[in-house]
Each structure stands twice: as C-alpha cells, then as structure tokens.
Design goal:
The complex is a heterotrimer. Helix content of chain A is 22%, strand content 14%. By secondary structure, chain A is α+β, with helices and mostly antiparallel strands. Chain A has 2 domains: 30 residues; 137 residues, Alpha-Beta Plaits, CATH 3.30.70.3270. By secondary structure, chain B is α+β, with helices and mostly antiparallel strands. Chain B has one domain: Cytochrome-c3 Hydrogenase, chain B, CATH 1.10.645.10. In chain B, the strands form 3 sheets. Chain B has a 3-stranded antiparallel β-sheet. A 3-stranded antiparallel β-sheet of chain B has the order 7-8-9. In chain B, strands 4-5 form a two-stranded antiparallel ribbon. Chain B is globular and about 75 Å long. The relative contact order of chain B is 0.18. Chain C is mostly helical. Chain C is globular, with a radius of gyration of 21 Å. The chains are: A alpha+beta, B alpha+beta, C mainly alpha. Chains in contact: A-B, A-C, B-C. Chains B and C meet through helix 5, helix 6, helix 8 and helix 15 of B and helix 7 and helix 14 of C. Strand 1 of chain A pairs parallel with strand 6 of chain B.
C-alpha cells in the first residue's frame, strides 16, 4: 500500500520551541490581517436585500410543482406511480369521480411540504414528466394546514386529451378549477387525530407507512 | 483474535452512576463528581450526552449515553423498500451523504445483479472524493472552533461552499443528496461540472498552505494536541475503529486500497498513517487525506468516459433473490457497511447499517480518562464524531 | 478649542468650596458613567465588526447604517430581558457578583489619565492603586461561578480565579520595570517622564520585553482568548456567567469590554506614553521640529489612538489563536513568563542605575 507517515510537530528544547512558537503566532496573525485588510474577500451576501439578483441552480429541490403549459393544462393521468414511490406518503393523488372522459382523471394532487424529504423519486419516476422541483425556498407559513399543497390547478383530463377538443368553451366544461387544498389529509399515512378514516378521500397509497 | 480486555465492559447506566468513587477519609481527599456534558452542548457535534466523572479538572471516566436522535432507520428501511431507503441514509452521517448512498446502492446492485458502466463508476468516485474533501473541510473548521480559534470555522465553510455549489448545480441539494441510486446516478453531470471542479482544485491547493499557517503550524494547537488521547494500534483494532482514527494509530488499513470499489484501483494516491495515535496524528492524517482527495479528483476529472447515467429505469421494481448481501466502503469517517437480508420481495426483511461513528465513539471511553476537560473536547473533535450516525 | 483646554478652563474658574467639590464629584461621576457606557457600546460594535472582517464576512449591517446602532439594540434587549435566577442559587451572591466586576473596573477607570487635564483621580500611588483594585474583579467571577449552583460555572470560576491571580504577578513585574525607569508610582509623572520618548523603545530591549509580557498577562487578566477558558465557549457554554441573563449578564458583559479598555489604556499609559505625543529626544535636540509637529495633535486624540491600537491588537489575538488548556496556561505563567519577568526586572534595574537608555537626563545619547 502506498502509505506516508504524517509529520509530527517539532520537538526541541524550550528555547527553540519558544522562538518557533512566537514566529508561528505572528504568521497566523499575518494571515488573518490579510483578510481584514482586503474587504474584497468578504463572501457573505445580504440576503433579503439581494433577492432580485439571487440565482439558484436550476436543479435545486425546494418545492414540488406541476409542469403547466401555456394553456394552463397539465399531463397528469392520475397513475399513482409517484404516490407509490414516495417513501413517506407525502403525495396523495385523488381521482375525479365521476370522470368526464370515462378514463381516470386527476381531481386533486396533494403534496405535503411538511413531510416531504425532497428525495426526488417522484420526479424521476413520473412517466409523463409532470412533476418538477424548483427553487422556491421561501415557503414558511404560520399555519401547518397551509403546507398541504394542491399542485393541480384544475380537475380534469390531461392537456393531450383537452387539446383534441377544438372549442375552448367545451374544454372549459370538462374541467373544474381547483385552488389550495383545504381538507383533511393524512400525515405519513396516519389519519389526523380526531378525524375518522371515513372522512378521507380514497387513495391507493401503498408504500411508506407502518 | 480480539483481546477482550481492551473492549469496555457493558454495564447499565444506573450501575455506573451509582458506583460513585469512594473517597478516603483523609483531610486532603477530594471528591469526584459527575457532570453532564449534556445533549445540548456547543461541542459534542450533535445530540450526544456524555456523563463525565471528574476529579477537579481531570476526567476519570466517560460514559456516553446514546439514543437522543434514534429514528429507527433500519426498521424504516424494511417498510419503505429498496430504492426509498437510499435517501434515508443521507441522514445518517449527513456529511458523507453521497458515500452513504453509494454503499446502499452498491448493496442493492450486488443483490439484484444490476450492471453498471464505466461512466457511473468514475462519476461516483469523483463525487465520493469531493464529499470527502467537503466533510474534512467542515471537520477542520469545527475543530478549530472547538479548540477556541473561531476563524478557521469561517474559512473552512467559505472553501466548503465552493464544493457545495458544485453539488447544488449537479444534484440539486446541498446536504441530503440522494444522488447515487441503484443503477447509477439521479442526474447526469451538469455541463459546467468539469470546469467548476478544475477551478476548485486550482483554488484549494494554496488554501492548504493557509490552513497550515493558521492552524497546523500554530504552537498552541501543537501543544494542545501532542500526546493527547493516545490510542495504540491494538486497542484501535479491538474497539473496531476505522477510517482516519484507525490509520492515525498506525494501522495501514484503507478499504479503498484493500478492497477497491469504484475506480480506486486505477488511481494513484497515498494513504496517510500516523505513528503515535494521539490527536495530532488524527488531525494530520485528515489534512493529508484532503490533499490526496484533491489529487484523486485531478486524475479523474479529465477522463470521464461517456455513457448513460442510469442503467435501470427509475421506476423499475427491484426484487433481489433471497439471500444476505453485504457491502462496505470507506467514508470520510470510517467503514460504512450495509447488510441486507432479502426474501425475494420488494422490501428487505432486515437491513443493518454498520456505521463508523458508532465504533469510533467508544474509543473515548478508553482514551479520555486521565486527561483534562480541555483534552476531552480535543479528543471528541479529533475523532470527528457525527452523532446521527451513532443512533441511526 | 480642544477638550483639554476646555476642561482646564472650567477647573481654573472654580475655587475649592464644599459646594464646588460636590459639584465636581457629581460631574466626575456622571462623566465617568457616560464615558463608560459610550465606550462599552462602541467597543462591542467594533469587536463585532473587526471579528467579522477577520472572518471574511460583514458583521452587523441592518440596525442603522452598517449596523452602528446594533449596540443600542443589544443594550435595550438586555435591559428588557427577563432576569432568570436559578432556583437553588445563592440569591445574594448571585446578585452581587456582577456588581463586583463592574465596580472593580470602574475604580480602575477613574485612575487613568485621559489627557493632562482630564484626570479624575491622579493619586501619587496610582499604579499600586490600580493593581490593588483590579483584584476585586476576581471576586466577581468567583462569586458568580459559585452562586450559580452549576458545576460547569464552578469549573469556569475556579479556573478563572487561578488564572487571574497567577497572571497578576507577571503583569506587576512588567509594570515594575516602568516604575523603576520613570521613578514614580504616580501616573501623570510616568507620562511626563516619557516626554523624551516612550518607554517601549526608549529602554532598549527591556521596554519591549516588558511590553510583550504586559500584553500577554493583561490578556489573561481580562479572560480573553487565548486565555478565555473561564468562559470557554466551546467547553463550558459560558463558564461562570452561564446562569446570568438580562441586566446581570449585561453587567458582566460591560465589565469584560471595559476591562479591555482599561487594560489597553494602562498599557498605553505605561509603555506608549499615555497622552504624551511621540517625541524623540527633548525640545532642543535633533528632532525638535518633529516634536513640535507631533505636539499639534491634541493629547486626547493621542491617548485614544494608542488605546485603540492596543484594543485592536487584543481583538486580533482573539480571532486568530485557539485557547490554551488550563495546565498549559499555568505553565506559561509560572515557568516562562515569571522567570522572564524577573530577569527583565534585574536588567531594568541595572539600566536605571547606569542610565543606559536613550535620552536619559544628563546623558546625550
């Protein structure tokens, strides 16, 4: 094995160590003075004031979002694959019953920020690349209920199905707008205290809880 | 053969607290007292509780009390499945997140017989060495801070930020990466990766000299670390230490050389070994390891082969055949091993993480007694203990 | 109209009746308290800014322009904070410990001459008085550590007690050198004796060694890194003042920073000439023109500049060096600094006797 023995600190009599010590202290002081006297070496940023110029990497995982195209439609088919892959049941996919087209449709896509670990598995497995993580990191709120997001702006079929319909008014009839999710939802698979399981919307979540 | 006398005997905490030192009745006898270096403390590197038996300033006994950050990760791995447990290992030794992911992924690949290509191996090695460098930089900063010099902390973090930024661009996360998945990596390399890493390497080389000027050559640091907490080679092996702690005691053991994984058998690097096993040796071994990491990355960064970054589909089911699979690798703190018990289904029946910090911590009970409280802090810092790894 | 001529004006117009003495006393008290508060606020802000710039960051930037009002905000916070006293603490001692620390510091502060006319208590045993009174500070630390009923505080207090008592010896030895060279204990005489040059360079070698010893000992006296194991932040959380909050902690905090000021001021007075401008030789010598130029800068400004540079030196030490272990600290004092101090004292005695320093009166070096 290609090894190297590390050096030991110098040994010597008291006098030589004394002078070495003095010199080493001065060398350390010179280094810190170098940073003091060159204000250009400051590396910190003044955070709230520099929001406009703050640029995070595009792969930063801070918030889960849907890919919404120009018309406001998404491609989610409510296939539940992301829900199954999520390790701790932070995603609940609620299907629309009855669906407008007869095939499964998405009603609400509940994503819990307070239990998500940002492992990115949901993004990786989605077969239609509906989900993405973006860099919105300022998501603190004063009420925990606000941390259960609904990522889908409407309940209805995917953009592929909708764009086949020529008439915009007919398209609007097939979808129902959805806003922020306000109902009860389970945290890590366990129902919230005091709310019976019957009140929960049906989910097909399988993995991630005891 | 393991010398059983070198391993501390296991007694319950109550027994040990109850057996307070009997003091003799002479008029000058001093009394030993118990102090709690409690779970919240500026320098126990996490929620580690140490019950100290002190005689004035001298430490007579150290009793670590664990469990303050136990989260049941091994049990959780049984319920979440193979692929989903990888991101939990990020949170074990959070400073070696990429390396932990690699070990678990390698175990799963071994179990499910997943093939990899060269690009994956090279990129994994580069990321592991970057993570080692980043972890050692944080250790260096915190080491200075524990000894009372507050400035190295800031310098270490300033330099570490450059590596974190590289991670952020490619992986998307700064601390809990979940990057290395069974079958490859989550994302392919960012287009700016190579240029950034090369500029980082150019930046780091003069920085090592600065670290030496500020901390390594400082007489106060040298006198505080010399001959403090000596751990001889036999005790180190008997206690199960690994990593820089073991190497500082003079034992030439490095998994990257003895059981190479990734592309470690194709790069040239030296393994720093200590001679005495005191805090200074542990410090110097890590400083040299940083330089060796830089040299490994330098050798690899220009020769990344082309290929796919993930050889299995992200949602593919992993159903390894029934059996027991084990894989171990050298993280920045020691040997991290994963043992998986599979019965052919989609979730393992038992997962055991052999974490380096768990075994490194127990050296403390052997080497801290006899020193002062200040020595205790130096020893904990030089052992580079990250507590979530101990409790899992 | 400089500060010194202003105060000289006032003083010369007063006669010494009891009313005037009382007025002088009260104005002195108010002036000292005001000076002390202002100095503490400034020093805390400067420490934070200097620390930040050593560490490649900016420090307080929000409260006021570049954080100037940060100290005011801190002071307000400490005043309004709840005063938590541990349940089983010794209440009387817990309350009086910070008082001791502040009083010790105040008593030393009044003896330092800020300029030739701004001196509150220029007694003819000035240096002896300062040495004696600064010992009260140890009492504050020991009481604070003991009364908190906390083993960690007690460890910190015991360490501090041992440390301060040991280093007083070295500090006194280095001060003795200057007393011998200048021939008096009275601070204003010591300053006057530096009219031909400051003792740090005027006594070749001996002055510098005494200065370095004084710097090291006084850093240990005021519990600053590299000797801050009494409040070792990474070992004992906050040492003897762990259990203090609110105004009591504010007193300890105040005492610490003003101790820094006092010790730097003392060092400036003894070794760097106090308010005496930099003169090389006397008014008739080679450098008389240079001396006259130096005289143009007011004395108070000289004093503050010297003190500020010593304060900066202390901060530089704090943010560069790690701390010493307690046995190494004792070893440094008893085995290294004290022998050097004694040797220095003997050399200084010889130097004084034979007059072997620059610009000794009667000899034309």
């Amino acid at each position: 094995m290609n090894t190297v023995i590390v050096e030991r600190p110098g040994t010597g009599n008291l006098v030589s160590r004394f002078f070495y010590g003095f010199k080493s202290l001065l060398i350390g002081m010179r280094l810190t003075f170098k940073y003091l006297s060159h204000p250009s070496t400051v590396v910190t940023q003044q955070y709230p004031e520099n929001r406009k110029s703050l640029k995070l990497a595009d792969r930063v995982r801070a918030q889960l979002k849907f890919e919404i195209d120009g018309e406001g439609y998404h491609k989610c088919t409510a296939c539940h694959i992301c829900e199954q892959q999520c390790p701790n049941a932070s995603i609940h996919v609620i299907e629309r019953k009855p669906s407008a087209t007869g095939k499964p449709e998405l009603d609400t896509f509940i994503w819990r920020l307070d239990s998500c670990t940002f492992c990115n598995l949901c993004v990786m497995v989605c077969p239609y690349q509906v989900l993405k993580m973006d860099a919105t990191f300022e998501s603190s709120v004063y009420d925990q209920k606000l941390l259960a997001y609904n990522l889908s702006p409407y309940a209805g079929p995917t953009s592929g199905v909708l764009m086949k319909i020529e008439d915009p008014e007919a398209r609007k009839k097939m979808i129902e707008p959805r806003g922020q999710y306000a109902g009860p939802t389970a945290l890590s698979g366990y129902p919230l205290a005091g709310i019976s399981k019957k009140q929960f919307p049906e989910t097909t979540h399988q993995g991630g809880h005891l | 053969m393991v010398n059983m006398e070198l391993i501390p005997k296991v007694t319950s905490l109550d027994e040990r607290l109850g057996a307070m030192a009997a003091h003799d009745d002479s008029p000058l006898a001093t009394q030993e007292y118990f102090v709690n270096m409690g779970p919240q403390h500026p320098s126990t590197h996490g929620v580690l509780r140490l019950v100290l038996k002190l005689d004035g300033e001298t430490v007579r006994e150290v009793i670590p009390v664990l469990g303050y950050i136990h989260r049941g990760m091994e049990k959780k791995a049984e319920t979440v499945g193979y692929r989903q447990q990888v991101h939990l290992t990020d949170r074990l030794d959070y400073l070696c997140s990429v390396m932990n992911n690699w070990v678990v992924s390698a175990t799963i690949e071994k179990a499910a017989k997943i093939e990899l290509n060269d690009r994956i191996q090279v990129v994994r090695t580069i990321f592991a060495e970057l993570q080692r460098l980043q972890s050692h930089l944080l250790w260096w900063g915190v080491f200075g801070m524990d000894l009372g010099a507050f400035t190295p902390f800031l310098y270490g973090f300033r330099d570490r930020e450059k590596i974190t930024k590289i991670f952020e661009e490619t992986i998307g996360a700064r601390l809990t990466m979940n990057y290395i998945q069974p079958g490859g990596m989550m994302y392919d390399l960012h287009p700016t990766f190579q240029a950034e890493v090369k500029s980082l390497l150019l930046y780091m080389k003069p920085m090592f000299k600065e670290y030496d000027e500020l901390v390594t050559g400082n007489i106060i640091i040298q006198e505080r670390l010399r001959n403090v907490g000596c751990l001889d080679a036999k005790s180190a092996i008997a206690l199960g230490t690994s990593g820089p702690v073991l190497r500082a005691s003079g034992v030439p053991h490095d998994l990257r050389k003895s059981k190479p994984y990734g592309v470690y058998d194709k790069v040239n690097f030296r393994v720093p070994i200590g001679s005495v096993g005191d805090c200074w040796d542990r410090y110097a071994v890590r400083m040299l390891e940083m330089r060796e990491s830089v040299s490994i990355i330098e050798q690899l960064i220009d020769n990344i082969p082309e290929g796919k970054h993930l050889t299995v589909k992200p949602g593919a089911k992993i159903r390894p055949p029934a059996g027991v699979y084990f894989e171990q690798m050298e993280t920045a703190r020691g040997i991290f091993g994963v043992l998986m018990n599979s019965d052919g289904s989609e979730k393992p029946t038992r997962v055991n993480y052999r974490t380096p910090n768990f075994h490194n911590l127990w050296c403390l009970t052997k080497i801290a007694p006899g020193g002062k409280i200040g020595d205790l802090v130096s020893i904990i810092s030089s052992l580079d203990v990250v507590v979530p790894d101990i409790d899992r | 109209m400089s500060v010194s001529s202003f105060s000289r004006n006032i003083v010369s117009h007063l006669d010494s009746s009891p009313g005037t003495s009382a007025a002088l006393f009260v104005s002195g008290l108010v002036g000292t308290l005001a000076f002390m508060s202002l100095m503490a606020l400034i020093l805390i802000y400067v420490e934070r800014k200097v620390a930040a710039h050593f560490q490649c960051r900016l420090g307080p930037m929000r409260v006021g322009w570049h954080g100037i009002l940060q100290s005011v905000a801190d002071a307000l916070k400490l005043i309004l904070k709840e005063d938590i006293v541990p349940f089983s603490a010794d209440k009387l001692m817990h309350a009086t410990a910070p008082v001791f620390a502040v009083v010790a510091m105040l008593l030393t502060l009044i003896a330092i001459p800020l300029s030739s006319s701004l001196t509150l208590a220029d007694s003819n045993i000035g240096v002896l008085y300062i040495s004696a009174v600064s010992g009260l500070g140890v009492l504050g630390i020991l009481l604070g550590g003991w009364s908190s009923n906390n083993k960690w505080s007690l460890i910190g207090a015991m360490r501090a007690g041992a440390q301060i008592i040991s280093y007083e010896l070295s500090a006194t030895l280095s001060v003795l050198v200057i007393i011998m060279l200048s021939g008096s204990l009275k601070l204003s005489t010591i300053i006057q004796s530096q009219a031909n040059g400051w003792w740090i360079w005027r006594a070749p070698g001996v002055g510098l060694i005494a200065f370095i010893t004084f710097i090291i000992s006084s850093t240990a006296e005021i519990n600053r890194t590299p000797f801050d194991l009494a409040e070792g932040e990474s070992e004992l959380t906050a040492g003897f003042h762990t259990e203090y909050s609110g105004m009591r902690f504010a007193f300890f905090f105040l005492a610490e920073y003003l101790n820094l000021f006092v010790v730097s001021a003392l060092g400036a007075t003894l070794f760097l000439g106090g308010w005496m401008p930099l003169h090389i030789g006397d008014q008739q010598g080679l450098f008389s023109g240079f001396n006259q130029v130096m005289d143009l800068i007011p004395e108070f400004v000289w004093f503050m500049l010297k003190t500020a540079s010593l304060i900066f030196l202390s901060m530089w030490f704090r943010w560069t060096f790690p701390r010493l272990r307690v046995d190494q600290l004792m070893k440094l004092e008893w085995k290294i600094l004290m022998p050097i101090g004694f040797l220095n004292l003997v050399l200084a005695a010889l130097m004084t006797f034979f007059g072997f320093f620059f610009f000794a009166t009667g000899r034309g070096f």
